[in-house]
Protein backbone atom coordinates (compact mmCIF):
# COMPACT_ATOMS: atom_id res chain seq x y z
CA UNK A 1 0.00 0.00 0.00
CA UNK A 2 1.32 3.45 -0.91
CA UNK A 3 2.63 5.55 2.01
CA UNK A 4 2.41 8.81 0.08
CA UNK A 5 -0.99 10.45 -0.41
CA UNK A 6 -2.27 13.81 -1.57
CA UNK A 7 -3.90 15.61 1.31
CA UNK A 8 -7.59 16.45 1.17
CA UNK A 9 -8.44 20.05 0.36
CA UNK A 10 -9.88 20.69 3.82
CA UNK A 11 -6.60 19.57 5.42
CA UNK A 12 -4.57 21.69 3.01
CA UNK A 13 -6.74 24.70 3.78
CA UNK A 14 -6.30 24.27 7.54
CA UNK A 15 -2.53 23.95 7.13
CA UNK A 16 -2.55 27.19 5.15
CA UNK A 17 -4.75 28.76 7.82
CA UNK A 18 -2.20 27.80 10.45
CA UNK A 19 0.41 29.87 8.60
CA UNK A 20 -1.78 32.94 8.10
CA UNK A 21 -4.20 32.85 11.05
CA UNK A 22 -2.39 32.44 14.34
CA UNK A 23 -4.94 34.25 16.49
CA UNK A 24 -7.77 36.82 16.19
CA UNK A 25 -5.23 39.62 15.74
CA UNK A 26 -4.02 37.91 12.55
CA UNK A 27 -7.57 37.98 11.17
CA UNK A 28 -7.96 41.68 11.96
CA UNK A 29 -4.62 42.48 10.31
CA UNK A 30 -5.46 40.63 7.09
CA UNK A 31 -8.96 42.07 6.78
CA UNK A 32 -7.94 45.67 7.49
CA UNK A 33 -5.03 45.42 5.06
CA UNK A 34 -7.44 44.19 2.38
CA UNK A 35 -9.63 47.22 3.10
CA UNK A 36 -6.66 49.54 2.73
CA UNK A 37 -5.67 47.91 -0.55
CA UNK A 38 -9.25 48.46 -1.72
CA UNK A 39 -8.82 52.21 -1.29
CA UNK A 40 -10.91 52.57 1.87
CA UNK A 41 -10.98 55.98 3.54
CA UNK A 42 -13.10 54.83 6.50
CA UNK A 43 -12.75 51.49 8.33
CA UNK A 44 -14.99 50.37 11.19
CA UNK A 45 -13.92 47.39 13.31
CA UNK A 46 -16.15 45.57 15.82
CA UNK A 47 -14.75 42.92 18.16
CA UNK A 48 -16.58 40.59 20.55
CA UNK A 49 -14.90 38.52 23.27
CA UNK A 50 -11.40 39.48 22.19
CA UNK A 51 -12.17 38.33 18.63
CA UNK A 52 -12.91 34.78 19.67
CA UNK A 53 -16.67 35.18 19.14
CA UNK A 54 -16.84 37.73 16.33
CA UNK A 55 -14.70 40.05 14.21
CA UNK A 56 -16.37 42.51 11.85
CA UNK A 57 -14.48 44.83 9.47
CA UNK A 58 -16.47 47.26 7.32
CA UNK A 59 -14.99 49.68 4.77
CA UNK A 60 -15.97 52.11 2.04
CA UNK A 61 -13.48 50.75 -0.48
CA UNK A 62 -14.09 49.79 -4.11
CA UNK A 63 -16.14 46.68 -3.28
CA UNK A 64 -16.48 43.64 -5.57
CA UNK A 65 -18.79 42.27 -8.22
CA UNK A 66 -20.37 38.91 -7.38
CA UNK A 67 -18.01 36.87 -9.57
CA UNK A 68 -14.95 38.53 -8.05
CA UNK A 69 -16.28 38.06 -4.52
CA UNK A 70 -16.76 34.32 -5.10
CA UNK A 71 -13.34 34.01 -6.73
CA UNK A 72 -11.66 35.89 -3.84
CA UNK A 73 -12.52 32.93 -1.60
CA UNK A 74 -10.36 30.60 -3.69
CA UNK A 75 -6.76 30.01 -2.63
CA UNK A 76 -4.13 32.06 -4.48
CA UNK A 77 -6.77 34.31 -6.05
CA UNK A 78 -5.65 37.94 -5.91
CA UNK A 79 -5.97 41.24 -7.76
CA UNK A 80 -2.59 42.49 -6.49
CA UNK A 81 -0.19 40.59 -8.78
CA UNK A 82 -0.47 38.76 -12.10
CA UNK A 83 3.05 37.42 -12.75
CA UNK A 84 6.15 36.44 -10.78
CA UNK A 85 7.87 39.67 -11.83
CA UNK A 86 5.18 41.63 -9.96
CA UNK A 87 6.63 40.37 -6.66
CA UNK A 88 9.64 42.65 -7.19
CA UNK A 89 8.65 45.97 -5.71
CA UNK A 90 5.14 44.92 -4.70
CA UNK A 91 3.61 47.70 -2.61
CA UNK A 92 0.21 46.34 -1.67
CA UNK A 93 -0.43 44.82 1.74
CA UNK A 94 -2.11 41.62 0.60
CA UNK A 95 -0.76 39.88 -2.48
CA UNK A 96 -0.56 36.17 -1.68
CA UNK A 97 -4.27 35.45 -2.17
CA UNK A 98 -4.41 33.24 0.91
CA UNK A 99 -5.95 35.35 3.66
CA UNK A 100 -9.70 35.11 2.93
CA UNK A 101 -9.82 31.37 2.09
CA UNK A 102 -7.54 30.57 5.05
CA UNK A 103 -9.79 32.50 7.45
CA UNK A 104 -12.92 30.97 5.91
CA UNK A 105 -11.56 27.43 6.37
CA UNK A 106 -11.49 27.79 10.19
CA UNK A 107 -14.54 29.98 10.87
CA UNK A 108 -17.97 31.05 9.80
CA UNK A 109 -17.33 33.88 7.35
CA UNK A 110 -19.79 36.27 5.75
CA UNK A 111 -18.82 38.61 2.92
CA UNK A 112 -21.11 41.50 2.07
CA UNK A 113 -19.85 43.68 -0.77
CA UNK A 114 -20.91 46.02 -3.54
CA UNK A 115 -19.08 48.05 -6.21
CA UNK A 116 -19.90 51.70 -6.84
CA UNK A 117 -22.28 51.05 -9.72
CA UNK A 118 -23.36 47.44 -9.24
CA UNK A 119 -25.56 45.16 -7.18
CA UNK A 120 -24.53 44.02 -3.72
CA UNK A 121 -23.72 40.41 -2.82
CA UNK A 122 -23.72 38.36 0.38
CA UNK A 123 -21.69 35.14 0.56
CA UNK A 124 -21.67 32.74 3.51
CA UNK A 125 -18.80 30.25 4.00
CA UNK A 126 -18.75 27.74 6.88
CA UNK A 127 -15.53 25.85 7.58
CA UNK A 128 -14.32 26.40 4.03
CA UNK A 129 -17.54 25.17 2.40
CA UNK A 130 -19.33 27.70 0.23
CA UNK A 131 -22.88 28.27 1.41
CA UNK A 132 -25.58 30.72 0.42
CA UNK A 133 -24.92 33.42 -2.17
CA UNK A 134 -27.60 36.10 -2.47
CA UNK A 135 -28.23 39.70 -3.45
CA UNK A 136 -27.89 42.54 -0.98
CA UNK A 137 -28.76 46.22 -0.94
CA UNK A 138 -25.84 48.26 0.34
CA UNK A 139 -23.53 51.14 -0.46
CA UNK A 140 -20.13 50.74 -2.10
CA UNK A 141 -17.64 48.86 0.06
CA UNK A 142 -17.15 45.55 1.81
CA UNK A 143 -18.09 44.17 5.22
CA UNK A 144 -16.57 40.88 6.37
CA UNK A 145 -17.75 39.15 9.53
CA UNK A 146 -15.78 36.27 11.05
CA UNK A 147 -17.56 34.24 13.75
CA UNK A 148 -16.64 31.18 15.86
CA UNK A 149 -12.95 31.25 14.96
CA UNK A 150 -11.39 27.73 15.02
CA UNK A 151 -14.78 26.11 15.66
CA UNK A 152 -13.78 23.20 13.39
CA UNK A 153 -10.15 23.01 14.53
CA UNK A 154 -10.35 21.72 18.12
CA UNK A 155 -6.57 21.32 18.28
CA UNK A 156 -6.19 25.09 17.80
CA UNK A 157 -8.79 26.27 20.31
CA UNK A 158 -6.80 25.47 23.48
CA UNK A 159 -4.05 27.77 22.21
CA UNK A 160 -6.33 30.77 22.13
CA UNK A 161 -5.57 33.01 25.07
CA UNK A 162 -7.98 34.84 27.32
CA UNK A 163 -10.25 37.46 25.80
CA UNK A 164 -8.12 40.14 27.47
CA UNK A 165 -4.88 38.83 25.94
CA UNK A 166 -6.41 38.41 22.49
CA UNK A 167 -7.82 41.93 22.66
CA UNK A 168 -4.36 43.24 23.56
CA UNK A 169 -2.97 41.60 20.42
CA UNK A 170 -5.72 43.17 18.30
CA UNK A 171 -4.99 46.56 19.84
CA UNK A 172 -1.34 46.29 18.80
CA UNK A 173 -2.31 45.41 15.24
CA UNK A 174 -4.83 48.24 14.97
CA UNK A 175 -2.32 50.71 16.42
CA UNK A 176 0.32 49.75 13.87
CA UNK A 177 -2.14 50.07 10.99
CA UNK A 178 -3.43 53.40 12.30
CA UNK A 179 0.11 54.77 12.40
CA UNK A 180 0.91 53.35 8.97
CA UNK A 181 -2.12 54.85 7.24
CA UNK A 182 -2.79 58.16 8.90
CA UNK A 183 -5.03 59.30 6.03
CA UNK A 184 -7.77 56.80 6.96
CA UNK A 185 -10.60 57.34 9.45
CA UNK A 186 -10.57 54.41 11.88
CA UNK A 187 -12.93 53.30 14.63
CA UNK A 188 -12.92 50.24 16.89
CA UNK A 189 -15.74 48.90 19.06
CA UNK A 190 -14.96 46.18 21.63
CA UNK A 191 -17.82 44.35 23.31
CA UNK A 192 -20.22 47.13 22.38
CA UNK A 193 -17.99 49.96 23.68
CA UNK A 194 -16.16 52.31 21.34
CA UNK A 195 -12.48 52.32 22.31
CA UNK A 196 -10.87 54.00 19.29
CA UNK A 197 -12.15 56.83 17.10
CA UNK A 198 -9.43 58.36 14.96
CA UNK A 199 -10.07 60.95 12.24
CA UNK A 200 -7.49 61.35 9.46
CA UNK A 201 -4.31 62.90 10.84
CA UNK A 202 -1.95 65.31 9.04
CA UNK A 203 1.19 63.90 10.66
CA UNK A 204 2.60 60.99 12.63
CA UNK A 205 2.79 63.17 15.75
CA UNK A 206 -0.90 64.07 15.42
CA UNK A 207 -1.83 60.39 15.08
CA UNK A 208 0.25 59.53 18.16
CA UNK A 209 -1.50 62.31 20.07
CA UNK A 210 -4.85 60.78 19.09
CA UNK A 211 -3.76 57.35 20.30
CA UNK A 212 -1.82 58.14 23.47
CA UNK A 213 -2.39 61.80 24.18
CA UNK A 214 -0.65 65.06 23.35
CA UNK A 215 1.78 64.95 26.33
CA UNK A 216 3.25 61.69 25.04
CA UNK A 217 3.52 62.95 21.46
CA UNK A 218 5.24 66.16 22.58
CA UNK A 219 8.00 64.13 24.25
CA UNK A 220 9.18 62.89 20.87
CA UNK A 221 11.69 64.49 18.50
CA UNK A 222 11.09 64.68 14.76
CA UNK A 223 13.70 63.12 12.53
CA UNK A 224 14.13 63.27 8.76
CA UNK A 225 17.33 62.22 7.04
CA UNK A 226 18.43 60.94 3.63
CA UNK A 227 21.52 58.81 3.11
CA UNK A 228 21.99 57.89 -0.55
CA UNK A 229 18.81 56.18 -1.71
CA UNK A 230 17.52 55.56 1.83
CA UNK A 231 15.12 57.96 3.55
CA UNK A 232 14.58 57.63 7.31
CA UNK A 233 11.97 59.72 9.12
CA UNK A 234 9.74 59.48 12.17
CA UNK A 235 9.79 60.34 15.85
CA UNK A 236 12.19 59.32 18.62
CA UNK A 237 12.17 59.83 22.38
CA UNK A 238 14.26 62.54 24.01
CA UNK A 239 17.08 60.99 26.05
CA UNK A 240 15.93 62.90 29.14
CA UNK A 241 12.59 61.06 28.97
CA UNK A 242 13.93 57.55 28.29
CA UNK A 243 13.42 55.08 31.13
CA UNK A 244 14.05 51.42 31.83
CA UNK A 245 10.36 50.49 31.84
CA UNK A 246 8.00 49.92 28.95
CA UNK A 247 8.56 51.64 25.65
CA UNK A 248 6.68 51.81 22.36
CA UNK A 249 8.15 50.57 19.08
CA UNK A 250 6.79 51.18 15.62
CA UNK A 251 8.67 50.45 12.41
CA UNK A 252 7.63 50.61 8.77
CA UNK A 253 9.59 49.80 5.64
CA UNK A 254 8.11 51.27 2.46
CA UNK A 255 4.83 51.84 4.28
CA UNK A 256 4.57 48.30 5.64
CA UNK A 257 4.61 47.76 9.44
CA UNK A 258 7.21 45.10 10.22
CA UNK A 259 9.44 43.67 12.95
CA UNK A 260 13.20 44.03 12.52
CA UNK A 261 15.55 43.66 15.47
CA UNK A 262 18.54 44.82 13.42
CA UNK A 263 16.99 48.20 12.61
CA UNK A 264 15.90 48.66 16.23
CA UNK A 265 19.43 47.86 17.44
CA UNK A 266 20.88 50.36 14.97
CA UNK A 267 18.54 53.07 16.27
CA UNK A 268 19.42 52.24 19.87
CA UNK A 269 23.11 52.32 18.98
CA UNK A 270 22.66 55.98 18.02
CA UNK A 271 21.77 56.73 21.66
CA UNK A 272 25.31 55.79 22.78
CA UNK A 273 26.58 58.16 25.45
CA UNK A 274 23.17 59.82 25.86
CA UNK A 275 21.18 57.32 27.99
CA UNK A 276 22.09 54.92 30.81
CA UNK A 277 22.70 51.25 30.13
CA UNK A 278 19.45 49.28 30.11
CA UNK A 279 17.29 52.24 29.07
CA UNK A 280 15.17 51.62 25.98
CA UNK A 281 13.85 54.59 23.97
CA UNK A 282 10.49 54.80 22.25
CA UNK A 283 11.01 54.68 18.47
CA UNK A 284 8.64 55.38 15.58
CA UNK A 285 10.68 54.87 12.42
CA UNK A 286 9.66 55.03 8.77
CA UNK A 287 12.31 53.66 6.39
CA UNK A 288 11.95 54.06 2.63
CA UNK A 289 14.30 52.12 0.36
CA UNK A 290 14.19 51.45 -3.40
CA UNK A 291 11.66 48.67 -4.04
CA UNK A 292 14.20 46.44 -5.75
CA UNK A 293 16.45 46.49 -2.67
CA UNK A 294 13.93 44.87 -0.31
CA UNK A 295 12.01 41.58 -0.50
CA UNK A 296 8.66 41.67 1.30
CA UNK A 297 7.72 38.11 0.29
CA UNK A 298 9.65 36.28 3.03
CA UNK A 299 7.10 35.84 5.81
CA UNK A 300 3.62 34.23 5.77
CA UNK A 301 2.09 37.21 7.56
CA UNK A 302 4.35 39.76 5.84
CA UNK A 303 5.71 40.82 9.24
CA UNK A 304 9.37 40.71 8.16
CA UNK A 305 11.36 41.77 5.12
CA UNK A 306 14.79 40.98 3.70
CA UNK A 307 17.21 43.68 2.54
CA UNK A 308 19.71 43.23 -0.26
CA UNK A 309 22.28 45.16 1.80
CA UNK A 310 21.22 45.24 5.45
CA UNK A 311 24.37 47.03 6.64
CA UNK A 312 23.62 50.10 4.50
CA UNK A 313 20.06 50.33 5.83
CA UNK A 314 21.09 49.96 9.47
CA UNK A 315 23.85 52.58 9.11
CA UNK A 316 21.35 54.99 7.54
CA UNK A 317 18.98 54.47 10.49
CA UNK A 318 21.75 55.01 13.03
CA UNK A 319 22.90 58.17 11.25
CA UNK A 320 19.36 59.57 11.10
CA UNK A 321 18.69 59.02 14.80
CA UNK A 322 22.10 60.38 15.80
CA UNK A 323 21.55 63.47 13.66
CA UNK A 324 18.15 64.12 15.29
CA UNK A 325 19.64 63.74 18.78
CA UNK A 326 22.24 66.36 17.90
CA UNK A 327 19.65 69.10 17.53
CA UNK A 328 18.43 71.33 20.32
CA UNK A 329 14.91 69.93 19.93
CA UNK A 330 16.14 66.83 21.77
CA UNK A 331 17.01 68.87 24.86
CA UNK A 332 14.87 68.66 27.97
CA UNK A 333 12.02 71.13 28.12
CA UNK A 334 9.70 72.65 30.70
CA UNK A 335 6.38 73.62 29.14
CA UNK A 336 5.01 73.09 25.62
CA UNK A 337 7.42 73.26 22.70
CA UNK A 338 5.99 75.98 20.52
CA UNK A 339 9.03 78.08 19.69
CA UNK A 340 12.26 77.80 17.67
CA UNK A 341 15.24 76.54 19.65
CA UNK A 342 18.58 78.37 19.94
CA UNK A 343 20.37 78.07 16.62
CA UNK A 344 23.70 77.86 18.42
CA UNK A 345 22.90 74.26 19.28
CA UNK A 346 21.87 73.06 15.83
CA UNK A 347 23.66 69.88 14.65
CA UNK A 348 27.09 70.94 13.35
CA UNK A 349 28.32 70.13 9.87
CA UNK A 350 32.03 69.56 9.14
CA UNK A 351 33.60 72.58 7.43
CA UNK A 352 36.98 73.41 5.96
CA UNK A 353 39.38 74.73 8.58
CA UNK A 354 40.65 77.43 6.23
CA UNK A 355 37.24 79.09 5.95
CA UNK A 356 36.79 79.37 9.69
CA UNK A 357 37.03 82.92 10.89
CA UNK A 358 39.02 83.28 14.11
CA UNK A 359 36.83 83.47 17.20
CA UNK A 360 36.09 86.89 18.58
CA UNK A 361 38.26 87.89 21.54
CA UNK A 362 36.97 86.70 24.90
CA UNK A 363 37.75 87.76 28.40
CA UNK A 364 40.81 86.06 29.69
CA UNK A 365 39.79 83.15 31.87
CA UNK A 366 40.82 79.69 32.91
CA UNK A 367 38.64 78.07 30.24
CA UNK A 368 39.19 80.57 27.41
CA UNK A 369 39.86 78.78 24.11
CA UNK A 370 43.35 80.27 23.68
CA UNK A 371 44.48 79.01 27.07
CA UNK A 372 42.81 75.61 27.19
CA UNK A 373 41.83 72.64 25.05
CA UNK A 374 38.12 73.51 25.01
CA UNK A 375 38.42 74.25 21.29
CA UNK A 376 41.84 73.02 20.37
CA UNK A 377 43.59 72.74 17.00
CA UNK A 378 42.88 69.01 17.09
CA UNK A 379 39.16 69.77 17.16
CA UNK A 380 39.12 72.43 14.45
CA UNK A 381 38.18 70.15 11.56
CA UNK A 382 35.03 69.17 13.44
CA UNK A 383 34.08 72.63 14.64
CA UNK A 384 31.58 75.08 13.26
CA UNK A 385 32.11 78.80 12.92
CA UNK A 386 31.86 80.40 16.33
CA UNK A 387 28.18 80.95 17.10
CA UNK A 388 26.80 84.26 18.20
CA UNK A 389 27.14 84.00 21.95
CA UNK A 390 24.31 85.56 23.97
CA UNK A 391 24.96 87.23 27.34
CA UNK A 392 25.52 84.46 29.88
CA UNK A 393 24.89 84.44 33.63
CA UNK A 394 26.10 81.80 36.10
CA UNK A 395 23.54 80.60 38.64
CA UNK A 396 24.50 78.83 41.88
CA UNK A 397 27.98 78.29 40.43
CA UNK A 398 26.43 75.39 38.52
CA UNK A 399 24.25 76.60 35.64
CA UNK A 400 24.74 79.04 32.78
CA UNK A 401 21.61 80.94 31.78
CA UNK A 402 20.74 82.98 28.72
CA UNK A 403 17.66 84.24 26.92
CA UNK A 404 16.72 82.29 23.80
CA UNK A 405 14.29 83.19 21.02
CA UNK A 406 11.27 81.94 22.93
CA UNK A 407 12.30 81.39 26.52
CA UNK A 408 15.08 80.92 29.05
CA UNK A 409 17.81 78.33 28.44
CA UNK A 410 19.86 76.74 31.22
CA UNK A 411 23.13 74.84 30.70
CA UNK A 412 24.62 72.53 33.33
CA UNK A 413 28.29 73.50 33.28
CA UNK A 414 29.58 70.09 34.42
CA UNK A 415 27.43 68.14 31.98
CA UNK A 416 28.31 70.53 29.16
CA UNK A 417 32.05 70.25 29.75
CA UNK A 418 31.67 66.47 30.10
CA UNK A 419 30.08 66.30 26.62
CA UNK A 420 32.86 68.49 25.18
CA UNK A 421 35.62 66.35 26.69
CA UNK A 422 33.96 63.05 25.77
CA UNK A 423 33.79 63.91 22.09
CA UNK A 424 37.35 65.25 22.14
CA UNK A 425 38.66 62.10 23.86
CA UNK A 426 36.81 59.87 21.40
CA UNK A 427 38.37 61.68 18.43
CA UNK A 428 41.78 61.34 20.04
CA UNK A 429 41.36 57.60 20.63
CA UNK A 430 40.18 57.04 17.08
CA UNK A 431 42.59 59.34 15.23
CA UNK A 432 45.83 59.74 17.14
CA UNK A 433 47.65 60.81 20.25
CA UNK A 434 46.88 63.97 22.20
CA UNK A 435 49.42 66.55 23.39
CA UNK A 436 50.25 66.37 27.07
CA UNK A 437 52.01 68.40 29.74
CA UNK A 438 55.08 66.99 31.48
CA UNK A 439 54.90 67.27 35.26
CA UNK A 440 57.68 68.97 37.19
CA UNK A 441 57.28 66.38 39.93
CA UNK A 442 55.96 62.92 38.87
CA UNK A 443 52.91 61.60 40.67
CA UNK A 444 53.01 58.27 42.50
CA UNK A 445 49.76 56.32 42.67
CA UNK A 446 49.24 53.23 44.85
CA UNK A 447 46.33 51.21 43.51
CA UNK A 448 44.36 48.20 44.64
CA UNK A 449 44.37 44.98 42.61
CA UNK A 450 41.16 45.81 40.72
CA UNK A 451 42.31 49.30 39.78
CA UNK A 452 45.70 47.90 38.71
CA UNK A 453 44.01 45.41 36.39
CA UNK A 454 41.84 48.18 34.95
CA UNK A 455 44.97 50.22 34.17
CA UNK A 456 46.67 47.29 32.45
CA UNK A 457 43.57 46.69 30.32
CA UNK A 458 43.48 50.33 29.17
CA UNK A 459 47.18 51.27 29.30
CA UNK A 460 47.62 51.94 25.59
CA UNK A 461 44.47 54.06 25.52
CA UNK A 462 45.67 56.21 28.42
CA UNK A 463 48.87 56.82 26.44
CA UNK A 464 46.89 57.99 23.42
CA UNK A 465 45.04 60.46 25.60
CA UNK A 466 48.28 62.07 26.77
CA UNK A 467 49.06 60.17 30.00
CA UNK A 468 52.65 58.98 30.40
CA UNK A 469 52.44 56.28 33.07
CA UNK A 470 54.90 53.55 34.07
CA UNK A 471 54.62 50.68 36.51
CA UNK A 472 56.76 50.83 39.63
CA UNK A 473 56.30 47.37 41.06
CA UNK A 474 53.08 45.75 42.19
CA UNK A 475 50.19 48.10 41.54
CA UNK A 476 52.16 51.31 41.98
CA UNK A 477 52.22 53.75 39.05
CA UNK A 478 54.45 56.72 38.27
CA UNK A 479 52.70 59.44 36.25
CA UNK A 480 55.09 61.75 34.37
CA UNK A 481 52.79 63.53 31.88
CA UNK A 482 49.06 64.29 31.76
CA UNK A 483 46.66 66.05 29.39
CA UNK A 484 45.35 69.42 30.54
CA UNK A 485 41.66 69.79 29.68
CA UNK A 486 41.52 72.84 31.97
CA UNK A 487 43.75 74.43 34.61
CA UNK A 488 41.55 73.11 37.45
CA UNK A 489 42.32 69.55 36.34
CA UNK A 490 43.26 67.36 39.32
CA UNK A 491 45.21 64.56 37.62
CA UNK A 492 45.76 62.21 40.65
CA UNK A 493 42.12 62.36 41.70
CA UNK A 494 40.88 61.99 38.11
CA UNK A 495 43.06 58.91 37.50
CA UNK A 496 42.03 57.22 40.74
CA UNK A 497 38.31 57.81 40.17
CA UNK A 498 38.54 56.75 36.53
CA UNK A 499 40.32 53.48 37.32
CA UNK A 500 37.91 52.79 40.17
CA UNK A 501 34.94 53.24 37.83
CA UNK A 502 36.56 51.12 35.09
CA UNK A 503 37.30 48.33 37.53
CA UNK A 504 33.60 48.04 38.31
CA UNK A 505 32.53 48.58 34.69
CA UNK A 506 29.94 51.06 35.90
CA UNK A 507 30.00 53.42 32.93
CA UNK A 508 26.44 53.84 31.60
CA UNK A 509 25.61 53.68 27.93
CA UNK A 510 29.13 52.79 26.74
CA UNK A 511 29.63 49.85 24.40
CA UNK A 512 33.40 49.64 23.76
CA UNK A 513 36.61 50.08 25.72
CA UNK A 514 37.18 53.40 23.95
CA UNK A 515 33.75 54.67 24.92
CA UNK A 516 34.02 53.44 28.51
CA UNK A 517 37.34 55.15 29.04
CA UNK A 518 36.38 58.37 27.23
CA UNK A 519 33.06 58.64 29.09
CA UNK A 520 34.56 57.93 32.50
CA UNK A 521 37.55 60.22 32.03
CA UNK A 522 35.35 63.02 30.68
CA UNK A 523 33.15 62.83 33.76
CA UNK A 524 36.05 62.90 36.19
CA UNK A 525 38.05 65.56 34.31
CA UNK A 526 35.22 68.03 33.64
CA UNK A 527 34.72 71.19 35.67
CA UNK A 528 32.42 70.62 38.61
CA UNK A 529 29.24 72.13 39.97
CA UNK A 530 30.36 74.85 42.37
CA UNK A 531 33.29 76.05 40.22
CA UNK A 532 33.06 79.80 39.69
CA UNK A 533 33.50 80.66 36.01
CA UNK A 534 34.54 84.00 34.57
CA UNK A 535 32.56 85.54 31.68
CA UNK A 536 35.32 84.42 29.31
CA UNK A 537 35.13 80.86 30.59
CA UNK A 538 31.36 80.77 30.23
CA UNK A 539 31.63 82.04 26.65
CA UNK A 540 34.31 79.48 25.81
CA UNK A 541 32.19 76.66 27.22
CA UNK A 542 29.18 77.84 25.18
CA UNK A 543 31.25 77.87 21.97
CA UNK A 544 32.75 74.45 22.67
CA UNK A 545 29.39 72.89 23.47
CA UNK A 546 27.85 74.32 20.28
CA UNK A 547 30.60 72.54 18.30
CA UNK A 548 29.75 69.07 19.65
CA UNK A 549 27.54 66.57 17.83
CA UNK A 550 25.21 65.87 20.78
CA UNK A 551 25.17 69.08 22.84
CA UNK A 552 21.92 68.39 24.68
CA UNK A 553 23.06 65.29 26.61
CA UNK A 554 25.98 64.23 28.78
CA UNK A 555 27.47 60.73 28.78
CA UNK A 556 25.17 59.51 31.57
CA UNK A 557 21.93 60.35 29.81
CA UNK A 558 21.33 63.51 31.81
CA UNK A 559 20.27 66.72 30.13
CA UNK A 560 22.94 69.29 29.38
CA UNK A 561 20.41 71.89 28.24
CA UNK A 562 16.97 72.60 29.72
CA UNK A 563 14.66 75.06 28.02
CA UNK A 564 11.89 76.95 29.84
CA UNK A 565 9.38 78.47 27.42
CA UNK A 566 7.81 81.87 27.84
CA UNK A 567 4.38 80.22 27.73
CA UNK A 568 5.21 78.24 30.85
CA UNK A 569 6.73 81.25 32.63
CA UNK A 570 3.68 83.39 31.87
CA UNK A 571 1.38 80.60 33.02
CA UNK A 572 3.25 80.40 36.35
CA UNK A 573 2.84 84.15 36.83
CA UNK A 574 -0.85 84.01 35.97
CA UNK A 575 -0.49 85.93 32.72
CA UNK A 576 -2.20 83.13 30.77
Look at the structure and name the CATH superfamily of the largest domain: MutL, C-terminal domain, regulatory subdomain
How many strands appear in the DSSP assignment?
23
Give, in spatial order, the strands making up the sheet with the most strands. Answer: 5-4-3-6-2-1-7-8
* Helix/strand class: alpha+beta
Helix proportion: 25-40%
Strand coverage percent: 15-25%
The whole-angstrom Rg is 31 Å
Number of helices: 15
Overall pLDDT confidence: 80
What is the straight-line distance between the termini?
A: 89 Å
Major beta sheet, specifics? 8 strands, mixed
State the CATH architecture of the largest domain.
Answer: 2-Layer Sandwich
Ranges where pLDDT stays below 50 over 5 or more residues in a row are 336-385
From the 3D structure, determine the CATH topology of the largest domain.
Ribosomal Protein S8, Chain: A, domain 1
The number of domains: 3
Assign the CATH class of the largest domain: Alpha Beta
Shape: elongated
What does it look like?
- The chain is of the alpha+beta class and 576 residues long.
- It has 3 domains: 9-198, Histidine kinase-like ATPase, C-terminal domain (Heat Shock Protein 90), CATH 3.30.565.10; 205-325, Ribosomal Protein S5, domain 2 (2-Layer Sandwich); 343-563, 2-Layer Sandwich (Ribosomal Protein S8, Chain: A, domain 1), CATH 3.30.1370.
- It has 15 helices and 23 strands.
- The chain has an 8-stranded mixed β-sheet with strand order 5-4-3-6-2-1-7-8.
- Strand 17 and strand 18 (399-403) form a beta hairpin.
- Helix 10 packs across helix 14 (535-546), helix 11 packs across helix 12 and helix 12 runs antiparallel to helix 13 (513-525).
- The radius of gyration is 31 Å and the shape is elongated.
- The model is unreliable at 336-385 (pLDDT under 50).
